[in-house]
Amino acid sequence: MRYLLLFCICIGFLLSSCGATSKTVYFQCDRQDVQLYINEQLIGSGQGTYSTEPGEERIHLSCRQNGKEVYSRDYQLSKSSSIYYEVSIPKNLRYGSSETIKPTYK
After folding, report:
1. Which domains does the chain have, with CATH numbers?
2. pTM listed for this prediction
3. How far apart (Å, rounded) are the C-alpha atoms in residues 12 and 46?
4. Which residues does 75 contact at the CB level (< 8 Å), separation at least 6?
C-alpha cells in the first residue's frame, strides 16, 4: 500500500513537470530612449527581458516614448526556451495613428 502511494506521487510529479514551461524573451531596440512594454508591463528602456507564463503563445510589444506609443506589434512565440528579437523603429512613422513625424536634421 505504501509503495502504491509513493508510485502515485512520483507519477503526479512527472506529469506536472511535463506540461508547458515558461520561456524567456529578450528584446533589443535600436532606440534607447524608448520604453518597452510587454502585455502592458514595463520591461525596460531600449532593451528588456520578459518571462512568459506557462502555455503563453503570443505576446504584445508596445514601445513608448514620453508616454506615447510609437510602435506596436504582436509576436507568436516559438517553441524554444529563449527567444531574441531585435526591434527597429522607423524614425519618421508613428505606428497606431496616421500622424507622420517629420525627421529632424542637424
Report:
1. 22-100 (2.60.40)
2. 0.66
3. 42
4. 25, 58, 59, 60, 61, 85
